[in-house]
Amino acid sequence: MRLHPLTSLAAAGSAAVITTAAASWPLSVTVIAAAAGLSVAGGVARRMLPAVAVILVPVVLSLLALHGLFFPEGTTVLAQWGPARVTVEGLHFALERAAQLSAAVLVLLLCSFTISIPDLVAALSSRGVHARFAFVLASTLTLLPAISSRVGRIRQAQEARGLVIRPGIIGRAGAFRWQAVPLVLSLVEEAGTRAAALQARGFGSTGHRTSYRAVQDSPVQRWVRLVLVVAAVAAIAARLWQPTAGAS
């Protein structure tokens, strides 16, 4: 059974919310493993990897630097340089937060790389969502996949013209400065082209709209979406209630 785009969106959002609210190391690792396995099974792992690296590598390094070196509650000191102290508690806290954030980022990226954008826009429009808002939401979900694909095409064109890119992350990062300008210019040009195309298709009109694309839904998936939303709300409520319960 093919997943409805709103079901995929609800599953990703609920998984991110529940993982963040639970703040549980085993749950975060489980979600990371599940997202990685689904990305491999869906054939999007190679395309997701650059986006994952761009988002998570600087964030994880900053968490390790901040909490690993300057964790005030740390008592078990592994090394010290003046006011900076590497503590077991700080490293544990940093790794726990890194896993928690990585799980949320991975499930959201997996959704953005696998969801069918035409189906999502049609599903939102059929439920009364304004066409412009539906398109903005869909474009936001596909922003990273579009940038990743565009960078790949720019790199291939530059390599065909003689640019030598050393293998590895450092080599690609060094070559990105040559790709940044054409990437930004192409995205700006595409934005203008899309705006003209949307205007020509009447996205700014306020009348009743119809769609040639019909997205099949089922009662089971509607119930699943409801359960996912309720679970996410319950996780947030439990997280907010926990400090109060502990204080009393």
Automatic annotation (TrEMBL):
It comes from the Bacteria. Keywords: Cell membrane, Membrane, Transmembrane, Transmembrane helix. The keyword Transmembrane helix applies. It is a multi-pass membrane protein. InterPro entries: ABC/ECF_trnsptr_transmembrane, ECF_transporter_component. The keyword Translocase does not apply. Its main location: membrane. It is found in: Membrane. The chain crosses the membrane at residues 51-71, 98-117, 129-147, 223-241. This is Energy-coupling factor transporter transmembrane protein EcfT.
